[in-house]
Amino acid sequence: MSLSNPEIGKSVAAGGIRTNYIEAGENKAEVLLLIHGSGPGVTAFANWNGVIPAFAEHYHVYAPDMVGFGYTDCPAEISDFTLDFWVDHIVAFMDVLGIPKARFIGNSFGGALSLAIAARHPKRVEKFVLMGAAGLRFEMSDGLREVWGYEPSLSNMRKLMETFAYDPSLVKDVIVESRHEASIRPGSHENFSRLFPEPRQEKLDRLATPEDEVRAITAPALIVHGREDVIVPVEVAYRYSALLQNSELHVFGKCGHWTQIEKRDRFIEIVLGFLTE
């Protein structure tokens, strides 16, 4: 990890793409992969730093920046970002690090990717947690439209961060400023704008795994969602609960899209209970 910038960790060439990732934990035998969401200025560190220390006490944690986000390269020749592309990137990341199988926690966009890996590569997934997860077809919310259509400014970032949280008082100046600075880092917004252009409903639909494939998943799943989430509606979590045969569901009241921040201690308790049982 860089001493000057904790968001910069180690790097590895995954599928030919230099991939930045955070690594923590001494338990080499039990691997936990954390897949971040799709907000502007997001990095694996920004998404997960509040919970990595707790998970690293039990697991060897890897949190990569997906292509198009953070400090992972985003080659100019990539013209179409698809579910296939991102799934292949995660599998290549696992292969190059010699990870045959892992537990997953996927946040929002990262939940869609984790679900797709469980469906397409079942031998690579021991258990998985879907946190405020996309990955099923639903009508795009106004909140998600604001996320993917974001234009950089300090005021826009504050408004967006307040959309993520049920309690806007959780949105401190340091969070707003750090995410804003990340979103205007050279090349960051240009890359972000390439990921989910209009028509955005079509891009959202392309992140969905067909429901018959979701029903066929046998890996144990924990679904965690905020009842007041205005980015990915809680109804998506209820549908996951009905489709995933080996699943359990926990819905937090008075909670938005930031479960791991808004309900941190209880989130850690529930997730560790599920992963370690």
For the secondary structure, the number of strands is 8
Strand adjacency order, main sheet: 1-2-4-3-5-6-7-8
Could you list the spans in which at least 5 consecutive residues all have pLDDT below 50?
A: none
Summed over residues and divided by their number, the pLDDT gives a mean of 96
Radius of gyration from CA coordinates = 17 Å
Biggest sheet features = 8 strands, mixed
- Report the order of strands and helices: EEEHHEHEHEHHHHHHEHEHH
Q: Give the CA-based shape.
A: globular
Structural class, from helix and strand content? alpha/beta
Contiguous helical run count: 13
Characterization of this structure:
This protein is of the alpha/beta class. 40% of the residues lie in helices and 17% in strands. The protein has an 8-stranded mixed sheet with strand order 1-2-4-3-5-6-7-8, with helices on both faces. The longest helix has 14 residues. It is globular. The model has no long low-confidence stretch (mean pLDDT 96).
Describe the structure using short key phrases.
alpha/beta; single chain; 8-stranded mixed beta sheet; 17% strand; globular
Write a concise synopsis of the structure shown:
With 277 residues, the protein is an alpha/beta fold. The protein is 40% helix and 17% strand.
